[in-house]
Every structure is written in C-alpha cells, then in structure tokens.
Design goal:
Elements: H1 2-8, H2 11-41, E1 57-58, E2 61-62, E3 68-73, E4 80-83, E5 105-107, E6 115-117, E7 147-150, E8 154-162, E9 169-180, E10 184-195, E11 204-216, E12 220-234, H3 243-246, E13 268-290, E14 300-323, E15 344-358, E16 369-384, E17 397-413, E18 419-430, E19 437-449, E20 452-465, H4 469-472, E21 473-475, E22 480-482, E23 488-499, E24 504-514, E25 516-525, E26 536-545, E27 549-562, E28 565-576, E29 587-599, E30 603-614, E31 621-623, E32 628-630, E33 645-654, E34 657-664, E35 674-676, E36 679-680, E37 685-695
Length: about 700
C-alpha cells in the first residue's frame, strides 16, 4: 500500500510520506543509541570529560555538546581527509543551483539535471558507468561521501524550493549520525529531488538513501558506506527555436509562459538505478609509549608501525531509455523497434584491493609513509547485441566480462607544519586495460607571508588510459557504435598560491592531451522538412583527436572587504589550442557583492547580489539517448554566452538555523541566456531554502 501510494500521488505527498518514514526510523535509532551511550559512559571516562558530557549542567541548564567532525576517504588506501561540516551559511543561497555555487557548470537548467564544468581543470575523468559522470549534482562518488564523529546525536534537515505546482523544484535532504562510545559512529541520509522545471518535459525525480558506519580503534578500524540511487529524468531535446528566448516579441501570440515554448521530445525518459557498497578496514601493528602530553606519566598512546589494509567496492548500475512518443525527424537512425523496457544497459563491478603500509612518524627517521597494494576488478556489461530487424520480438543480449589486475604505491607526508606531499602511482599489468597507468602527485609548502600563513602547492599527473567501455561500445535504439579507441594520454602541471592575509588564491595550469576522446553530434539535413524545427536529424558517436591539444588555465579568486562591505571574485581565463575539438570559453567569472553584518548581535545576515558570466563559444550540446554532452556539428553550430545572469539574495544564520530568500535571474528581461545550446536558463523566480541542525 505504501509503495502504491508513493507511485501514484503527487510529489508533495510523496515527499511528506518518505520524510515521515525516514524520521520515524531515525527517532527509534536515536532513542536506542542514546540509551547505549548513557550506559557506556556510566562505566567509563574515556569518551567525554566533565565539561563535554551531555548530562552535566551549567548554570542550572542542560549543556549539549555540538562538537562534530567529518572526513572523506580515498577509495584505495582508506586515508582520511578532514572536511568542514556543511554548516556555513556563506553562499548557501547558491548551494542548490544546478550551475554550481560559482556558476561554473553548463547544465540543462533544471535541478539535478546533467551538467559539465566549463572550467576544464575541474572536469573529472569519465566514470566506468559513464552515464553517472554528468549527474554529479546528485550522485556522490565514494571520495565525496562523508563520515562523522560527534559527541551528541546530530541531525540536519534541509528544504529548498521555488516555483509553483507546474514549475520549479523541491529538494528535501535529511542527515542523521550518532556515536556509540568514542569510536563507533553510524548514520544515514535521505535525499529527494523533484524538479518540475520551467520548460516543457524536463522534470527530474531523484532519490538517494544512504547508510554508513565506522569504527576507529587503536589496532583495527573500518569504514563502510552503502547508497541506493534512483534517478528519473524527462528528456525534451531542447527548445525547437531559440528566438522564443532571444526574440520573444515574435511569439507573443503563442507563448504565455516558458512552458508554452515547443520542445523536440515529449514523454521521453532516462532512468538510472544503482547500488554502491564500499568497505575499507585496517589492522595496525605497533607499540605503546608514554603520552608526552600526560604530566603524570601514567597514560600511554598506541603508535602504529605497519598497517595491513583491504578495500572492497561493489557496484550495480542500470540505465534505461524510455520513449512513449516517437518524434519526427529527430534521430537519423533507428536500429530496432522495441518496447520501452528493452533499450537498457546494465553494469556490475567488483573491486578488491589488499595492501601494506609503513606508517609515517613511528620514529624520528620515519619522515613519510609508504603504501603498496595489489588489486583485482571484475566487470560485466550487458546490452542489446546485433541490429534487430523491425518487427522482431527477439532481442539478443551482449554480455562482456573483464578481469583487470593492477598494483600501485604511495609515498606521503601529512605530519609537520611546513611541508606535505603525496605521490601515487598505479599500473595495470593484466586484463582489458593492460598497459594503463597513472602517476599523480601533490606537494604543499606553508610559510609566513605578511605576518600570516600562506601556502604554495604543486599538483601534477600523467595518465595513459583506455577510455571507458561505454565510450567505446554502446548499443541502443537510436545510438549504436563500437569504436576502436586508442589510449588517451594526459599530462598536467598546476601551481597554486594561497594567501589568507590578502584573501587571494591564484591557480595556473597547463595540460597536454593526446588522443582526446569526445562525443560528436552530426546533423543530417532533411529533404523537404515539414517545419523549420525539423530540418535536421541527429547522430551521436565517439571520436578521437590524435594530435596534441594544449589547455592553458589561470584562475584568480580574490576577495575584498571594507567594513561590512564584501566583494568576492572568481575569474578564470583558459585557452584550448583546438577550439573545434575542445571548445572552452576564454573568460568565465563570478562576482558577489554583499553586506555582512549581525542584527541584534545574533542574526548573521548577508544582503547582496551576485553575477555569473562567460564569453561566447561553441558550447557542447546534449544527447538525450546517451545522457552525455557532445560537441556540436561544426557546420551548424550555435554560440552561447556573453550575457550575465544576476540574482539578488538575503542569507541568514541564526544559531542552528540557516535560511535564505533569493530573487534568481533578476535580469531575465534580456532574454538571451542559455546554459547549453537549446537549453535556456530558468526565468526569474523566487527561491527559498532552510537548513536546521539538531543535537541530542
């Protein structure tokens, strides 16, 4: 009955039911976990001191500790990297926008929709299940999944929304985490995005349910994470005529709102569903020594010398393209006629890594740590095989299985104040990807500048890798290719200068790419088209550029302050030596002018306006069947850019509550703004959001 209710009722009812169920479970867990904590702390003093206990009283009132720590893990070694907990209110008004906080992304415009960064050095490698790569506003890779340690149960509820019943979006997110004693933590997250969108047939409906646990012991520790994702997105193929945006006065008789603008596709959906499980654990061998901070000489600490680690990652992925209304003159080829459930591909992956570490700092000569590992990955791909004759009910299935063997090593220094470094290398010695390798390094030097701390960092990598399986092979109703790709070679050197005193971050990077792999859109003219919007049909296929391409990037982040007046700037200059193959805007900027002050000494307030801008260029278009961004056909390309998008906002922080009001795209009257060819930005609208932290 519950599942039937969820599937048939409106989005608001679905949200209410799902959130209610989620918090019923959390409240039960909270009651039991707090009872366990009380019982443990009644018999030990190792978890909290007298000033931290939730049962102590100060001035006759109960004191609840709000200390919470968060970190992420790397997938191979399980090394922990501290990250800030999402409690800051600065730029909170932009945290839910598909174009990103500083507007770096090209996107389809709706909440959670596919996106690609215009800043080349920010683009991640294409994932093995490539269809998840542009979904990074919603999907979290393992190195983005947070683990926590908290002195009292912690819960965060966030709700963002805009628009009405037929437009806009709703986004509900809830996180709960709790410690049982000092070392054990568990938690869960529920994340639901529902974006109706401001244009026809572009809705999104995404749900994520995640759970995690960790144990941090002296000799043994583990981290585990599980997430289930369901993503359903309507595809509209873009608007049929950009003059509906650039010259709306010519369409006033047919257009009353943005939903009236005609689009290429209707009742067409991309659906993804995936499950990811991750487990990393270590066993430490070492010795105990007297704690130098203990003046009594009675307390000892454990010093790890050698560590054995194991990492397990299991993933199950599915993509299904469903089309109930077939468009006229949109696809160049139709490879088979099928029901809506057959245009599907599945992928399964199982990775195991076993390694050994010599720990950093176990004596004065161990100035750095050394890790080494060997790993195996099993991968299975399933999709339609061979071209199916029209009218046939037989759908042969292609199943490809691969086993890859690889080894790697790491040298790192994380202790000390001035110099830190991290050098990694991995080499595939057997399997489909034999000969693939990657070497990357990061080093940073901290020093005093203008009586304050500053940092110089150097990042570099060299990679020689075979493109993702789905970049080379994909069979579907409208897109079909088997591409014999060469290994893609990349080398980048990047320097970073950070000055906290002057609030300056300067980044300079140069990258060389050989055998650059990308998707190309090809338009085929239609003889005697029935309308101007049906003049071309589309084909999408991978290709490679075999000559060397260089990309130069300079990024300056400079913030100014005069009393309560702040002016933040993020300016990126970049140049590709082959703009047809790797198009990039020459300039991409973000500016934020605001007042930062407190009302009645308790309400932290930001009042301001921000602007996003990039110069004109032949931006990548989008393929609905692939769910990926592709280069435009150079014979019929359309440039976008050279028009700012300006928003006004009021951002507030009151103790444990953050909230904002934003007047998004205040200058929409210019009517010329696109995030991608055929995909305009959302029109003017009022956005709201709040985030509430709960402790105990």
């Amino acid at each position: 009955m519950i599942l039937q209710f969820i599937s048939h009722n409106n989005p608001v009812q679905r949200i209410r039911l799902l959130v209610s169920l989620f918090f019923c479970v959390l409240s039960t867990l909270s009651v039991h976990s707090q009872r366990i904590v009380r019982e443990l702390e009644a018999n030990t003093d190792t978890y909290a001191d007298a000033n931290d206990s939730v049962f102590n009283k100060k001035n006759g009132k109960k004191v609840v500790p709000t200390s919470i720590r968060a970190w992420v893990l790397d997938e191979v070694y399980g090394n922990m990297t501290s990250v800030p907990v999402d409690t800051l209110h600065h730029q909170y008004q932009n945290s839910n926008l598909p174009e990103g906080i500083n507007g770096h992304y090209n996107t389809l415009g709706n909440l959670g929709s596919p996106r690609m960064s215009r800043i080349y050095i920010e683009r991640p490698d294409v994932m093995d299940f490539m269809f998840l790569t542009p979904m990074d506003q919603f999907f979290r890779t393992i190195d983005k999944c947070l683990h926590y340690n908290t002195k009292s149960p912690y819960m965060n509820i966030a709700y963002n929304f805009c628009g009405g019943k037929e437009t806009g979006y709703d986004h509900v997110k809830a996180i709960y985490t709790n410690n049982v004693g000092k070392r054990i933590n568990f938690g869960g997250m529920f994340d639901y995005m529902y974006g109706q969108g401001y244009y026809d047939s572009q809705s999104t409906s995404f749900m994520n349910a995640s759970a995690w646990a960790s144990y941090l012991g002296e000799k043994y520790d583990f981290h585990t994470y599980y997430q289930h994702n369901f993503m359903k997105m309507a595809e509209n193929g873009g608007i049929t005529d950009e003059t509906y945006i650039t010259a709306p006065e010519t369409h006033r008789s047919t257009q009353n709102s943005s939903n009236d603008i005609p689009v290429y596709l209707s009742n067409t959906w991309n659906r993804q569903e995936n499950d990811v499980f991750f487990y990393n654990h270590h066993y430490n061998i070492g010795y105990h020594k007297i704690d130098p901070s203990d003046t009594t000489g009675m307390k000892t600490i454990f010093v790890p010398v050698t560590r054995v680690f194991h990492t397990l990652k299991l993933g199950k992925y599915m993509k299904n393209y469903r089309q109930y209304n077939k468009p006229q003159n949109y696809y160049t080829h139709e490879y088979f006629v099928t029901d809506t459930t057959q245009d599907r591909t599945k992928h399964f992956a199982l990775k195991n890594i076993v390694g050994l570490s010599l720990c950093e700092g176990f004596n004065r000569y161990a100035a750095f740590g050394i890790n080494a590992y060997i790993g195996h990955e099993y991968k299975n791909y399933n999709m339609i095989d061979s071209v199916v004759e029209k009218g046939s009910t037989l759908y042969p299935t292609l199943s490809k299985k691969y086993n890859d063997l690889f080894f790697g090593a790491q040298i790192l220094r994380t202790q000390g104040r001035k110099l830190h470094f991290n050098i990694n290398a991995q080499f595939n010695f057997a399997g489909e990807r034999i000969g693939d390798f990657e070497i990357n390094g990061h080093t940073e030097f901290n020093f005093v500048f203008l009586k304050d701390s500053a940092q110089v960092a150097l990042n570099a990598f060299v990679k020689n890798q075979l493109p993702s399986y789905y970049v080379r092979h994909y069979h579907s109703r409208y897109t079909w290719y088997d591409f014999d790709a060469s290994k893609e070679w990349k080398m980048r050197i990047e320097a970073v200068l950070i000055s906290r005193k002057t609030k300056t971050t300067l980044i300079g990077a140069i990258e060389n790419v050989k055998n650059y792999t990308y998707f190309q859109n090809t338009l085929t003219p239609v003889l005697n088209p029935p309308s101007l919007s049906q003049r071309f049909t589309n084909t999408w296929a991978p290709t490679q550029h075999y000559d060397m391409i260089q990309v130069f990037t300079v990024n300056l982040q400079q913030n100014f302050r005069l009393g309560i007046l702040h002016f933040d700037n993020d300016i990126t200059l970049q140049k590709s030596t082959h703009q047809t193959v790797l198009p990039l805007p020459l300039l991409s900027t973000y500016h934020n002018l605001y007042l930062d002050f407190r009302i009645a000494k308790v309400l932290h307030t930001e009042l301001g306006a921000d602007m996003k801008f990039f110069t004109k260029y032949d931006a990548p278009t989008y393929s609905p069947t692939l769910g990926m961004f592709c280069n435009q056909d150079p014979n019929y390309s359309t440039k976008i850019g050279n028009f700012p998008i300006i928003s006004l906002y009021a951002n507030f922080d009151l103790k444990k509550l953050r909230f904002y009001v934003q007047y998004y795209h205040a200058n929409a009257g210019t009517n010329r703004y696109f995030w991608a060819p055929g995909y305009p930005a959302s029109p003017t609208g009022v956005h709201f959001g709040l985030s509430w932290n709960f402790y105990d």
